[in-house]
Design goal:
The chain is mainly alpha-helical. About 65% of the residues lie in helices and about 0% in strands. The chain has five helices and no strands.
Length: about 110
């Protein structure tokens, strides 16, 4: 059962403490050694490069990258030019930069 579902007396009994005195300093040290400090773990922040690479995990972006590579290869082989493939690649890169910018702004707004 979760502590929020129990009565205050049941929680105090289970934790072996008193609501007026709390824990003694010695008991605090014993419990910290056993259970660790009562602190939340901080998540590691993503680097800019990790956020940039995450932008390329989307299925549609992968398809666009494949289309850009195919267009560039056929442009080289068939002497049709590289313009279409380079435009697709430029749009995908611009989209990735915009995605990282939005993610950084969202993270800063939450901080």
């Amino acid at each position: 059962m979760n502590a929020y579902q129990e009565t205050p007396k049941a929680v105090l009994d289970r934790l072996q403490t008193d609501h007026k005195k709390g824990l003694s300093s010695e008991e605090v040290l014993v419990r910290q050694a056993r259970d660790g400090k009562n602190e939340l773990r901080e998540k590691k922040k993503k680097t800019w490069f990790q956020m940039f690479l995450d932008q390329f995990r989307d299925f549609l972006v992968i398809i666009l990258l494949i289309a850009a590579v195919i267009s560039i290869v056929t442009g080289i082989i068939g002497d049709e030019g590289l313009v279409d493939g380079l435009i697709i690649l430029a749009i995908v890169l611009l989209n990735a930069f915009l995605g990282v910018t939005q993610e950084q702004r969202a993270n800063n707004a939450l901080a």
